[in-house]
Write a structure and sequence with these properties.
The chain is 26% helix and 40% strand. Strand 1 and strand 2 (16-22) form a beta hairpin. It starts with a strand and ends with a helix. The protein is of the alpha+beta class. It has 2 helices and 8 strands. It is globular, with a radius of gyration of 14 Å. The chain has one domain (2-143): Nucleoside Triphosphate Pyrophosphohydrolase (Alpha-Beta Complex), CATH 3.90.79.10.
């Protein structure tokens, strides 16, 4: 069984996380996800995320650290290993180059979105660890 490594960015700004709705031209149209993409040969997960977010949203991010990955089988013989990373928005204006829309979502509203199946465990992990992540973000921005 093949495993495809896919990164996703949990991009934080002002105590909210960026969530993206898949467009009609993408697989799983209309479902919500954390943006990211497949790791290319010779690319680290962090490099992949920076590239993918630039390609999908036209913004620059800083990758701070990883959360627990999730394996999900969308079709027979292929497993997606979703590698989530906590990130912060550095610069640029969001442009919807692939997604239908984005929302900046607070912790309490995460479960109101119709998530892609592979992202649901990431959402649950994020909800459980939200306060710890927020403290780390405050500590990071204070140090910078």
């Amino acid at each position: 069984m093949g495993v495809v490594l896919v990164t996703c960015a949990l991009i934080f700004l002002n105590d909210k996380v960026l969530c993206a709705q898949r467009s009609s031209t993408m697989n799983l149209p209309g479902l919500w996800e954390f943006p990211g993409g497949k790791i290319e040969k010779g690319e680290s997960p962090e490099e992949c995320l920076v590239r993918e977010i630039k390609e999908e949203l036209a913004i620059t991010i800083k990758v701070l650290g990883a959360l627990k990955p999730n394996d999900h089988a969308y079709s027979k013989g292929i497993v997606i290993r979703l590698l989530p990373y906590v990130c912060i928005w550095q610069c640029g204006e969001v442009k919807l180059l692939e997604h239908q829309q984005i929302k900046w979502v607070e912790k309490g509203n995460l479960n109101s979105l119709n998530w892609a199946p592979a992202d649901i465990p990431i959402v649950n992990d994020l909800s459980e660890n939200w306060n710890i992540i927020q403290k780390q973000l405050v500590d990071y921005t204070t140090e910078s």
